[in-house]
Amino acid sequence: MLLAKNIRIKTHRGLVARFGQKFVERGLMEKHFGRNSEDRHGLRSEAVYSIRERSPKKEAAFMVEDAEEFLTKAKEVVA
Prior knowledge:
By secondary structure, the protein is an all-alpha fold. It has helices at residues 12-24, 31-49, 56-78.
């Protein structure tokens, strides 16, 4: 979505912040998509650096459902 607006980002944290500024704060995307992208970043970091066991099936099912909803909305916004 950001690339469609000619916005290039170098870090994941920067991507999350800019997504919030360009799409969530302007009301083009729902707030939960901004929060969820921050949560995903935390889960990714935890998965890479943590040895704690998680419930991956539950989390994966939620992430897939959320991603499908996100893509549907993103296509509307970018079109």
